[in-house]
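Hey team,

Filing this mostly as a record. A colleague (T.K.) asked me to run one chain through the structure pipeline before their review meeting, and I want the input and output archived in the tracker in case anyone asks later how it was produced. No errors, nothing strange. Just documentation.

Input sequence:
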Amino acid sequence: MDDKLILDSQTDAATGVCTIKLTGPLVLNNMFAFQARLREEKNANVVLDLSSVPYVDSAGIGVLVNGLVSCKNNGRTLVLAGVAERVMTVLKVTKVDQLFQFAASSEEAQALTAKA
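Output structure:
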């Protein structure tokens, strides 16, 4: 399996919301670059576009939860957008889905975080 994870991020000038689009599985082998990128966002509300993430392992779940805690501790919002059914199932089985705010698309998530 190809464990390459591509990160593409942009910050909306009007709202200050940072959207990070992940492409590929979020697993132990590639989570460190994502974790570092998420830590760079100190002041912005964050949208994580997971629409192109086919799979998340336990390390990936851990980095998502750590990112959420970091955002909350700094008074920021983190929203997961476009979560695939397989990834959502893993989040539900591990019961961490209850921690997150979800949106169907990046656009919907940006609207949610802009209001926050």
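Quick notes for T.K.: The mean pLDDT is 92. The helical segments are 31-40, 58-73, 85-93, 106-115.
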